[in-house]
Amino acid sequence: MQKYLIYLQYQGLGYCGSQKQNKNLEPKQKTIQEELEKVLSTLKKQNISTIFSGRTDAGVSAYSQCAHFVSDEIEDLDKFRYSMDSLLPDDISVLKIVPVPDDFHAQMSAKYRHYQYKIKMSNAKPIFDSCCFYTRQKLNIERLNNMLSYLVGEHDFSAFKSHSENPATVCTLYKAEARQENDYIYIDIIGNRFLYNMVRTIVGTLMMIEKKNLEENTMLEILNSKDRTKAGMTADPIGLALVEVGYENYK
Hints:
With about 250 residues, the protein is α+β, with helices and mostly antiparallel strands. The protein is built from 5 helices and 10 strands, in the order βαββαβββαβββααβ.
């Protein structure tokens, strides 16, 4: 038997997140993992289970998500990838498949994750851009970067965490930057781990501070408070995408 790492991308708008849901939940909604395992099991003619690098919520997309699975040896990986793409829904695509050692784990072996939030600033809603958050609010790129700079490093991010049973709240952010291209703003956040809804809450807090024209160091005060009630709303998942999962130390 051989362990494989699969890289895939997907548009998350039509899915109830990446991870399989409780079968008893009604109504049943499709997930990325279920679609992937269904195709793998069909092609390998055996039940194939996958382990994802982490979950993405309903509506969140991925430019490059990772998962591992174990099966008998695949002789032609390129041909197998092509076969997978032909069976998967149009909004899921396999980028590549590579063999990995037995001790590799898609989630536990990850060193960092890169998320990006895309915002469209316009007086008219973006009809042809389905994976971005639309706002009429004008955001100041310099102020955004000043606020994001407070978050870089190792911190307790309790103020940006939605309810979760995981008690660990300390994360290390290697990068938190915003850039503007015409009417679009891209917020890139790279860290060793993330709390539930952390990126979306950071974005919601940025927008709250801008809307109320508060001081830039309000972000630092909220971070230090460790109080979720002081942060902004959780931003819509439509603008969020997982860009990369890194398995080497972030440079």
